[in-house]
């Protein structure tokens, strides 16, 4: 059953992952994929900061973790001053940031011709500029320690064209380009940078963006014939920020049930 903790189900596979001396900052950590990343890293020993625009929700989530090694913070990632304040507080608390998983973002399903300038700007401000602000502020601190692991959350929408994804796809495509540039410039500083490109994942954001008809179309294009779970996606991020992934840099990992690889799908041929 998918509701059973996947971390427990895969305990042996993850037994070698140790984060006891690491400080991890998770933006958008109060829900969805970000929350699952925070929970998994906490269970594996990391000190975890859950940063989210909804402080009340973030604080409630922290209570479910190891309270002595977790912290909630409010941040609006589209505001550089907010981001810098967040980073300063983490440094004041724990002296360093080893890991950044940037999961904060918003979505929009609107056709290209109907997308307003205001909607376009908001998506770019939050999903792309927010990524830049968070990564830059954190990377400057990582440089001081000559160590860092960064994972940005992009999307399959940043790799393939899709109806209603002009603003969202452009922003997430920008995240991929930014990730690749960062991976080149920061590698010599001991910092690796990778991105996840989740497909259809059962999150609050997807629930808002995907209508019943959209879900039907998506499932038809996924070889595994189902949506993924936040836990499944989070495992990929946890691996990429581990020591076992230290030679992986500048990669975009699709977590999509085969969506990006699929062409014609005739499900009857395998039955």
What does this protein look like?
- By secondary structure, the chain is an alpha/beta fold.
- The chain has a single domain, classed as NAD(P)-binding Rossmann-like Domain (Rossmann fold).
- It is built from nine helices and seven strands; from the N terminus they run αβαβαβαβαβαβαααβ.
- It has a seven-stranded parallel beta sheet, with helices on both faces.
- β5, α6 (166-186) and β6 (191-198) form a beta-alpha-beta unit.
- α4 packs parallel to α5 (117-145).
- The longest helix has 29 residues, at 117-145.
- The mean pLDDT is 91.
Throw out a few tags for this protein.
single chain, 271 residues, alpha/beta, Rossmann fold, 7-stranded parallel β-sheet, 7 strands
Radius of gyration: 18 Å
Average pLDDT over all residues: 91
Strand content: 5-15%
Strand order of the largest sheet: 3-2-1-4-5-6-7
Order of helices and strands: HEHEHEHEHEHEHHHE
What is the structural class?
alpha/beta
Layout of secondary structure:
Elements: H1 6-9, E1 23-27, H2 32-43, E2 47-52, H3 55-62, E3 70-74, H4 80-94, E4 99-102, H5 117-145, E5 148-153, H6 166-186, E6 191-198, H7 204-209, H8 212-220, H9 230-240, E7 252-255
Parallel strand pairs: 1-2, 1-4, 2-3, 4-5, 5-6, 6-7
Helix pairs in contact: 2-9, 4-5, 5-6
